[in-house]
Here is the input.
Amino acid sequence: MDCETEISQGRRFAFGRNWLRFGTLIDEERIAGATRSLEAALGTADLTGRTFLDVGCGSGLFSLAALRMGARVRSFDYDPDSVRAAGKLRLEFAPDSDWSIQHASILDAEFVQRLDQADIVYSWGVLHHTGDLWAAMEAVCGLVAPEGTLYVSIYNDQGPESRMWTAVKRRYNASGVLGRQLLLTGSLLYLGRHAPLRAAQRLTKRVQGNPQGTVPRPRGMSRKHDLVDWVGGYPFQVATPEEVFSFCHERGFELSHLKTCKGGIGCNEFVFTR
Here is the structure.
């Protein structure tokens, strides 16, 4: 089954459509934020001569950041709209660059076998949306060159709350426009329940049509598009930091960077060296 069929049947969130909308906000400030994020996690600002494989490239923002840092970049995504979003970004900011973009899935074993190993394999917030997290993890581990780097982020396992969010996401993708808007509003209020005034202010801005995405977040992202991605992001799987560490350690990787969401909602970020 292809991505567009899954979306039409309510079995998958339209990640690419969200990235296409986010792409209109990308500017030098957001690119700089993404670049700083990569530099901090990788411990270097210079990727000259190194290959960078972006697994599930989304908008292409981090592929572009790696390119600006000197890497030779190859990107792919399962969602054709994400491929289009990354292509538009390349056309606008790096039209003659050493950056290839393909439509493919990390779960496509034949495609993965044709890929060369890369010095840096990057997949931020993607593998848990494939429908088979651990098969996807196995595939990305195999794509890392000897002494190379694996940089992944995986949604944190919150136990019962993660199961609640799985139900919300499933309902979102099976709903119409009104149902999705209600789920977004309810989720915004729930996420802001410990700071109700701030949540109410954000809700008011949404109702008034304020884009809520004009001020870049850390990593150059957008609060509005992150919210839609969070509430709609299905398929959805989670893992504890210990599970991710053990999985990679058993395959010959050593942890060099860890940034957790402190047991709460969101992604735990890992950088491993092979």
